[in-house]
Design goal:
Blueprint lengths: L13 H10 L1 H12 L3 H16 L9 H5 L6 H10 L4 H8 E4 L4 E4 L7 E2 L2 E2 L7 H5 L12 H8 L3 H13 L3
Antiparallel strand pairs: 1-2, 3-4
Helix pairs in contact: 3-9, 5-6, 8-9
Bound molecules: iron/sulfur cluster (2 copies).
């Protein structure tokens, strides 16, 4: 396993990333199987370094694609905060803007693009849900256990796309 490698040129074009995401779906699932045979801690070290390097070159305020395409999950406390921001009762807010996944019991903001997206920025940035703060979840531990989600986000988020491609490169995949 290499400790470092020259960074590849980043791909930042959202449309191109979406197309490559479809084209490389099979390759990404094969890479997922390959990763399961690697050392978890070593992969986390590389992923966290790559995450910093990739983020340093990407400005989320010029992208906003996650807020256009995905629905963040929200806790009851967050729903309370958002309903206050919108001057609505929690009941009315939930009726209008929240959907529940009954299988998992998880609540989501139901609209895409997100109702709080203002051009490419979040209009409630300091109050955004925890799920938004941690997206695209590349700073968490045990990357190898979360590759399914990474593949789902590969064609949406330039951070995930470039991190995944750079990881393949560094692992000589
Ligand atoms: S709350 Fe803000 S950060 Fe979260 S999806 Fe909506 S616009 Fe994006
Ligand atoms: S987290 Fe990813 S998809 Fe969301 S704004 Fe940043 S680069 Fe774009």
């Amino acid at each position: 396993m290499k400790q470092s490698a020259k960074m590849k040129q980043l791909e930042l074009n959202i449309e191109k990333i979406a197309i490559i995401g479809e084209q490389k779906e099979e390759e990404n699932f094969d890479f997922r199987i390959f990763l399961k045979g690697q050392d978890f801690e070593q992969v986390d070290k590389i992923v966290h370094r790559l995450d910093k390097e990739v983020r340093a070159q990407i400005d989320c305020e010029k992208c906003g694609n996650c807020c256009k395409s995905l629905r963040p999950c929200v806790t009851d406390n967050e729903i309370d905060t958002l309903s206050r921001i919108d001057n609505l009762s929690q009941h009315d807010f939930e009726n209008g803007f929240v959907e529940i996944d009954n299988l998992e019991g998880i609540k989501y903001l139901k609209d895409t693009p997100c109702k709080y997206l203002d051009d490419k920025s979040c209009s409630i940035y300091t109050n955004r849900p925890k799920d938004c703060k941690s997206y695209p979840h590349t700073q968490k531990e045990e990357f190898i256990t979360r590759t399914l989600g990474m593949i789902e986000n590969y064609g949406i988020c330039p951070i995930v796309f470039n991190l995944f491609e750079q990881l393949k490169h560094e692992l000589d995949y």
